[in-house]
Protein 1
Amino acid sequence: MAVSEIRSILVGLELLDDAEPDVFDDALETAVRAFQQDRGLGVDGMVGDETWGALDAARWRLGSRALYHSVPDALVGEDVRALQERLLEMGYDAGRPDAVYGARTARAVAQFQREVGLVQDGSCGPQTMKALRRLGRKVVGGRPQWLREAEAFRQSGPNLVGKTIVIDPGHGGGDDTGVVVPDGQRRWNEADLVFDLASRLEGRLSAAGMRVHLTRGPSPSTPMSGAERAALANTLGADLLISLHLDGHSSTAAEGVATYHYGTGNGLSSTVGERLAALVQREIVVRTGMHDCRTHAKTWDLLRLTRMPTVRVDLGYLTSPVDRVRLIDPMSREQIVEALLAAVQRMYFPVERDVPTGSIDVRQLRMALADKG
Ligand SMILES: [Zn+2]
């Protein structure tokens, strides 16, 4: 990725005034930050793999090329996302607006074509584009995809037994240890601690009757990207995915827990993911007393490319003396796992029988649900 390329994309997005000079100056960094902010990416002003992927996709404006379902390498770009969002606004089931032109997008396009009397080839060429332009802005504001996701979730029933959950311990593999903090003779690292949390949670969820998969072992040989983790969960047909991370900051004063779900700045948000994020966040905050850094909508690969409600939770700052004491203590980790378990239980627990946060006794709940048959 050349600096000139990055500059010209940002100029095209009207985030940067000049394609010159061909250097990574302050103006470019500011533009990159604005882009990252807009796309819900981590804002660091640097162009890493994820930011580059988003920039590369942003070259394409809807209508600048024909779109079709290409196999095996799907077309990816902002134009695909714009098309998906337009289809969703009109009530077609295009799946998540993930910017990937897959089979589901092609089906939604074919359905649209049938209804407006065009040849149903599932491709978006000049004729289809024209029809979309004509009709595309009629219906705005509904979020049918998320309503469908919520309905599918509701229909899957209130029982944990037989549901598949993927637990994703962050990092691991090669040099990717996540946040590392030296402490006397020891060096605490994020990858090992979240793996321990994931294993504990695996045990508890299995005992509750769920099928549980971890995305990685304790020390995988190579690092895994967010997209690879998402693909694994999709292949497993998971009902839920919870990704576990810790945070780090140059200031030791930074502390607390934060949870992330899929959502864009312009109001498209996974309602089920948002609900799971809210449950995870409040169970942990209430049960542990950790500082509440709230829930946030992001478009990270792991959240965007998964086909099931997905959350990522950052379970405190390893760099904070307050949080670290908790994270390195197995009893406190057990308390965090208990909170995560309660949040998952609550997802499937009928709303009308909801009980105050922090007070769920998981065994009682399981018996109550078993009673219901
Ligand atoms: Zn992490």
Note: The chain is about 45% helix and 15% strand.
Protein 2
Amino acid sequence: MEVPFKEIGNTLAEQLPPLTRHEAAVEADRCLYCYDAPCTHACPTHIDSPRFIKKIATENLKGSAATIFASNLLGATCARVCPVQELCEGACVLGAEHKPIAIGRLQRYAMDHARESGAYPVVKAAPTGRRIAVIGAGPAGLSCAGELAKLGHAVTILEKRELPGGLSTYGIIALREPVEVALDEVRMIASLGVTIQTGVELGKDISLAKIQDEFDSVVLGVGLGRTPELGIEGEEAILDGLELIESSKTGKSTVAVGRNVIVIGAGNTAVDCATIAKRLGAERVTMVYRRTDREMTCYEHEYDFARKEGIEFRFLCQPSRVVLESGQPVGLECLRVELGLPDASGRPKPISVADSEFVLEADQIVKAIGQKKPGLAALLGLETRGGFIAVDESFQSSIDGVFAIGDCIRARGAASTVMAVQDGKLAAAAIHRWLAERVDTASAAEVE
Ligand SMILES: Cc1cc2nc3c(=O)[nH]c(=O)nc-3n(C[C@H](O)[C@H](O)[C@H](O)COP(=O)(O)OP(=O)(O)OC[C@H]3O[C@@H](n4cnc5c(N)ncnc54)[C@H](O)[C@@H]3O)c2cc1C
Ligand code: SF4
């Protein structure tokens, strides 16, 4: 698949350098190669970490990559974007008294080798003759498509954007994952025989009925939408944080960063927006949140990182209006907040104090308060759970033969790339079984 690399010019380099051969060998040698390793249990895709690390120690990098790919086809992305402190490295037995093994960076070392040498997985299964459409080329769709291809199915991905990769391409800041890494991973999935068509949107360019006519089953990996509305006066002058990140990643910069920037929100995306604004030249960046640092939804290490980057924080502030001059923001009016009893989220309810308005100066205001629920569910008449596409334990939606995976079904808990990848893997196995059962049923009917 041809991917228009030339148009991409990252404005920010990857934060961590790759390990050198010597560093990787020293780090791999520290591993205890634990039996029933807790790091493997802590990985949502259950990568056999001691096994791939041992292979690095013996300089078998091809074998190391193969071990990773066996559990997770998107190992290069996950090595960079996974919150390893909360997952494998957080569970490493050495963490209690020493430094945990740098599992993420070792995984990146093995994956970089695979990328540079083309040591990619190959399809060994015979073609099954079954055709599957995957909607969305994000981590969930790519993982599912790759696993289905490995099982011998003919897979076509339909992606609405110009470039595949989903949030790995457009949403995860380049400090963590450059666009080239995401696109190389897409090429690897294509090398398994997966067809990827970009610029095709389900619900606009093609209907579900047409896809169902042409394919034996359909998988929706459509992710979530843009940032929701705050519902305050002057909102039209607020920049969507996803747009800021996208512009910083793709080099097609349509967004100029302000001098004095406010970011509304306190999750990981808000920290990303604040970091990017700062690195792109903002003199002052302030994160505004209606609760306190105890209730922030970003990871603790992200909060620490933001503080080290010089990001300022204003807690217990409820934005109420954008102050405009000649249509341009000059400040954010906020109300003071007091915390009440826990609300449905389990966190203290923020209660705005009447007549407590004050203005924080800013020449750019960015919102990063999550993503909209998948709008496609209503369009296709799918059952939902809390606004997300409802699926059973086999990832079947309320329409027979239509499966759904990734962020669009993640009604509970934090969504992450590695969880989307695992959904894709498990759904591929479920679809394989579902197709086999249909063949069995059809054969039984013919015999009768
Ligand atoms: C700013 C940001 C930073 C993040 N950082 C991290 C991180 O550091 N670590 C981490 O683990 N997770 C992170 N996440 C979460 C992670 O990116 C997601 O959990 C993951 O990308 C979900 O994968 P997905 O395939 O379900 O959805 P997506 O990545 O959103 O992909 C969905 C794809 O479907 C396509 N699509 C949508 N509708 C249609 C349609 N109708 N027809 C055709 N195609 C369609 C979209 O264009 C998109 O390419 C971050 C999320 C955001 C927003
Ligand atoms: S828990 Fe730590 S020491 Fe044990 S196998 Fe995993 S990485 Fe190695």
Note: Residues 81-82, 135-141, 158-161, 166-167, 171-172, 176, 201-203, 221-223, 245, 268-269, 272, 376, 406-407, 415-418, 420 surround flavin-adenine dinucleotide (ligand 1) (CB under 6 Å).
